Every structure is written in C-alpha cells, then in structure tokens.
Amino acid sequence: MIRVTSFEKQQLNEEAERRGMTQSELIRSLIARLPEPKQKDTAG
Fold it and tell me: What is the pLDDT of residue 1?
C-alpha cells in the first residue's frame, strides 16, 4: 500500500486524465522509468 495525501491523489487523477490513462497505468509508467533493481546475492 502506498499512502498519498488528498492533494497528491488529485494530482495523480488529473495527470492520468490528461494522459488518457488510469491512475494505475500512470503509476506503472512512472515506475517503468526507474532503473532495474540490483539482484540480491542469495548465496549468502
């Protein structure tokens, strides 16, 4: 779960509408811009 303020929620909603996508799609598109996570060494 991600907590956001009502102001941030409104920003997200308006930007998603502007781009013609759902809020979930917008969040996923923003996350997709982040670098790939580093793999953790599970060999320990």
Answer: 87
* Helix/strand/coil percentages in the chain, nearest 5: 55, 0, 45
Residue 2 banded pLDDT, cuts 50, 70, 90: confident
Amino acid code (one letter) for 31: I
Q: Alpha-carbon distance 16 to 26, whole Å?
A: 6
Q: What angle do CA 9, 5, 36 make, to 5 degrees?
A: 70
Task: Give the mean pLDDT of 12-40.
Answer: 95
